[in-house]
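Box S1 | Example of a co-folding query
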Amino acid sequence: MPYIDIHTHNAKAQEEVLKVVNIFPWDDVEVNSQEGLFYSAGIHPWYIDEVDVKDSLRNVMEWLDTGKIAALGEAGLDALRGPEISLQEEVFLRHIELSEEFEVPLIIHCVKTYNEILALRKRTKAKQPWILHGFNSSVQMMRQMTEAGIYISLGPALLKNKRLQDVCREVPEEMLFFETDVSDVHINDIYTKAAEMRGVTEGELKDLVNNNFRKIC
Ligand SMILES: [Zn+2]
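Box S1 (continued) | Returned holo structure for zinc ion
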């Protein structure tokens, strides 16, 4: 049973790890299905101003058409970086539409915009799974997210952050993922910590995350 790393920027295949590698539509990458590698693509809010949004979305749609990407994103909202929120929201809405149209999950970047993401989930009545990557908020916020059909992905911050360890104990098992994002942390260290927090074996934790992955990807 592999470790699932639901969001990483490290494209190197790794033994016993199944990765969803984030690529940007303007990257010159060869998207081929190597064993253990899946891809997600989308316009990160930080770069909206620096790229041609239309061209980038066209690239993403071509990848979607050929079935070469398993998920959209990361896309989303960032209150601390990137262009004004109204523009970020406009681009994020395009990703939501594509996710619904092509029936693929959406990986979400969210910094200090948890309420906005929740409101958009409700307003758009989106049905596809959303995965909130690098979740970093409270147990109450996690509950609101999972009740709205948004999966929670916990990253390297889990190793140090006490509040996230509380979150980790409480996430419903059918809504849970883990990730390494841009860090050098090994994904198995995150599983070890999370298994300890949840009082299960690492094998049990891998099983349930694999089930979640198979359900949506
Ligand atoms: Zn990322």
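The chain has a mean pLDDT of 96. The chain has seven helices and eight strands.
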